[in-house]
Structure to design on (572 residues):
């Protein structure tokens, strides 16, 4: 099994701290450093055992690092890449956990001295919770993790990042940044939007008094961190607009079925939805 | 505490069997009978301890009943009420667990000899699972249960049905059938539709390979029983169309925000959604 000496987590929020915790528990990294603009956050991550060494200066945190994982909100990537650029060296690999990939890779190319030492990653592991105190190594096993290498991405970097996510028991997929952004718009960013808009609809029409577990689960993603979601939705606007447009067409189609009281068409639609979801679950969650 | 001698569950599927199980465990009913067109289903409910006495004839199951709970799909209510009508007696109270109320009450008035002995109930407790083998008394505590009495509904019937749902630790609300149908359209039937249409959108645009827990939870209701959902959506068409129309307007509004890249409006929308949901959760689930 691949093992590195030092992993550095840049941004010790829920996801960064969870990567640190899981990398330590799996034995992938002998030591894990964590850096946060706010030292308190890094110290909290250390206090829950997610990292070994808390820092508040990126230069200090990267001095002995073999691999850095950027886990800051998308709006912070330009700044982080600009801080990393003067610190780059051939044996410092860099990856991230950002929820969109085209914007991240454009930022890497713009700022880094050597962008071939950066590989885009997206572990599809999240929670509506926040902060290092909610860190959990259980976010990762059997979840998809997408890698978006470019033609000139360093080969050893790809192998090392692959080994990290494999150590966390993730299912690794490789695709282009554009494919990633199109697909996550449909199955991640659209569901976040759908959940928030169900809440807006209840705010307009009422119904909270009689709402129960179905409403709770369908709207879970509406409790996600708003500034983080603004970053993601804004970074992936074209693909999300396409997904919303298709979703709106589906709603119009269902309204027409209900207006004509076509029970057979309604049964066909709901049956196809049920079997499609159940096939996906059978394939994905074992 | 109110205790009745015999409760009869008409329709021993997941919800009916769960009511039987919880009514026994809470001590509300000394004996619980269960009747199903298919004796095997009633016997399965007996084998998991949800009922004491399985029947396949409604007349037999109601002979000694103090209270009957109708727990069949909505499309079966006309038939069930027509079978109960000749068996009605002043000391046989009747309620139901149907997901819409206007259609159920219309059916009761059409078929029953004495509709003042029927009270519409809707315990907001469900599961995407099916069958008596999944019965659970845990479906009910702290969930809303709506009663829809008419001006002439028998007072002792209202007290007895209230005592049943109180014994199951539900939060009881009283409203008109129309209020019930409008509110459940928003927080129950719309989320079911939203979940199914997210699946349809992924079927059209792709994305299953990278889908994870957010997609799984937001689409959970799409795995609900299709014929049962057709019954419910069809019975509540006008209110569901109104809810879908409002939801579609919300989508159009979000698309306009994204198209103009108005980050502040997006942040406001997502923040309001988050705080609205969290306030509701604080009020409802303790």
């Amino acid at each position: 099994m691949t093992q590195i000496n030092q992993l550095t987590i840049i941004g010790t929020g829920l996801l960064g701290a969870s990567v640190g915790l899981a990398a330590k528990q799996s034995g992938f990294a002998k030591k894990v450093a964590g850096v946060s603009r706010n030292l308190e956050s890094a110290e909290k991550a250390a206090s829950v055992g997610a990292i070994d060494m808390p820092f508040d200066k990126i230069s200090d945190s990267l001095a002995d690092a073999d691999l850095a994982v950027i886990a800051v909100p998308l709006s912070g990537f330009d700044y982080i890449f600009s801080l990393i650029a003067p610190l780059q060296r051939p044996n410092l690999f860099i990856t991230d956990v950002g929820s969109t990939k085209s914007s991240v890779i454009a930022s890497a190319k713009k700022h880094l001295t050597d962008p071939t030492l950066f590989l885009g990653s997206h572990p599809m592991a999240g929670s509506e919770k926040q902060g290092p105190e909610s860190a959990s190594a259980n976010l990762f096993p059997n979840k998809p993790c997408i890698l978006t290498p470019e033609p000139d991405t360093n080969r050893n970097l790809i192998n090392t990042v692959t080994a990290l996510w494999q150590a966390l028991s993730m299912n690794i997929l490789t695709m282009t940044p554009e494919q990633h952004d199109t697909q996550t718009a449909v199955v991640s960013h659209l569901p976040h939007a759908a959940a928030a808009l169900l809440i807006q609809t209840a705010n307009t029409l009422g119904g909270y008094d009689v709402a129960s577990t179905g409403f709770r689960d369908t709207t879970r993603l509406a409790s996600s961190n708003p500034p983080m979601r603004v970053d993601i939705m804004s970074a992936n606007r074209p693909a999300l607009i396409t997904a919303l447009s298709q979703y709106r067409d589906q709603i119009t189609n269902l309204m027409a079925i209900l207006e004509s009281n076509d029970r057979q068409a309604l049964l066909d639609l709901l049956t196809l939805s049920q079997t499609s979801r159940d096939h996906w679950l059978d394939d994905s969650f074992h």
The longest strand of chain A covers residues 4-10. The two ends of chain A are 24 Å apart (CA to CA). Chain A has two domains: 4-175, 180-284.
